[in-house]
Amino acid sequence: LLSRYQIHTGLQHSIIRPTQPNCLPLDNATLPQKLKEVGYSTHMVGKWHLGFYRKECMPTKRGFDTFFGSLLGSGDYYTHYKCDSPGMCGYDLYENDRAAWDYDNGIYSTQMYTQRVQQILASHNPRKPIFLYIAYQAVHSPLQAPGRYFEHYRSIININRRRYAAMLACLDEAINNVTLALETYGFYNNSIIIYSSDNGGQPTAGGSNWPLRGSKGTYWEGGIRAVGFVHSPLLKNKGTVCKELVHITDWYPTLITLAEGQIDEDVQLDGYDIWETISEGLRSPRVDILHNIDPIYTKAKNGSWAAGYGIWNTAIQSAIRVQHWKLLTGNPGYSDWVPPQSFSNLGPNRWHNERITLSTGKTIWLFNITADPYERVDLSNRYPGIVKKLLRRLSQFNKTAVPVRYPPKDPRSNPRLNGGVWGPWYKEEHKKKKPSKNKAGKKPKKRKTKKKKQPKKKKITQKKLQSSLFNHYF
Fold first, then answer.
1. pTM for the complete prediction?
2. Residue spans per domain, the chain
3. pLDDT band at 427 (very low <50, low <70, confident <90, very high)
4. What fold, for 6-287+466-473?
5. Rg over CA atoms, the chain
6. CB pairs under 8 A, 24+ apart, for 250-254?
């Protein structure tokens, strides 16, 4: 939503926990805010997971006209309750800025969110532009799906994989129903549909990244390589596969430019306009991707400045891609190749028959991702010059990083203190003192305070728009 790398938001370590006083930085305009400037109606349905400790962090304060969904990263698909830890449980379904108790009726979230999308489209004038961001909860754990979706997957022995397949079948049906709604209500011919996953699968919870290495939460390709597609009658080249470098930060400038919006010159973005890359097959303007630098993740024991040629401390967890080359340092996370579990009911300890023992003390890896997307051949010893080049690029990025924001748990976040609901809890504490009388019985004199002048807002020129619909799924 901001077109910024994690190192530029302070969110480079882990996710935002529901008990943390933390959220997406408030000092930059979000994608929906920029689209609203040029006349778009903006709506969000689904999972927020960008922090909510203050009211200013809520979706309706970050550019969305309406919001229907959950604030946390996961929860029960039917009851919409979530326990973060024992004694920290609450309801997590919102209508704009209030708990949606009226929808506490056991409807599976994938179907419930689709119904809301259909309602939004049915009530919107197709001649007026709309941005619709749908963040389905599926296929995140817990693994739950309506019974009828299991019928086609009885042959899958592994129960987690079977549940996962059923959830995905329900999601497929939901996407079809959204597409039919676009056609029914007159949006389809002038719409752009973007569908993307947000990270790799979790093999211990039904997911599979085979034959890629690693899993969700790691810097291996199995953890960070997301698949997706763009579908639109407006595409010049249809039915093609794009293997150019594309990053999630690229959607911000791409969609704003398509909407004929204005990107502020004084705002530094990490994304690029990639529409010509997608629509016409041109080369991507992007030559590198900073996957992340996490300075507080568990340090690799054998990492050092010496191992990084005096350029970089290889104890630090980081990963960067420059053209064909990918460099990892520190502890990149779980590194096995996990075969599909479709026809196996063996426990997770028996899945890892593709385990390759890493050399002891290793804290730096180099791969040619174009030639070796499975990260099986480490080339760091063969090409020290390329390693140094990528380490220098890492160091350059690190100089622009802001401090990590990962505050401790705030006990005031407990839903018990908020009517049993997860929601904003943080309030600025300004205690108003009653005017005290002095010895003579007179009120003290009021101090004069100078009012600060508010900075003038720049006028943004609005251009005439074609009616377009952007559906952005995660």
1. 0.85
2. 6-287+466-473
3. confident
4. Alkaline Phosphatase, subunit A (3.40.720)
5. 25
6. 250/3, 250/274, 250/286, 251/3, 251/31, 251/194, 251/472, 252/1, 252/2, 252/3, 252/31, 252/34, 253/3, 254/278
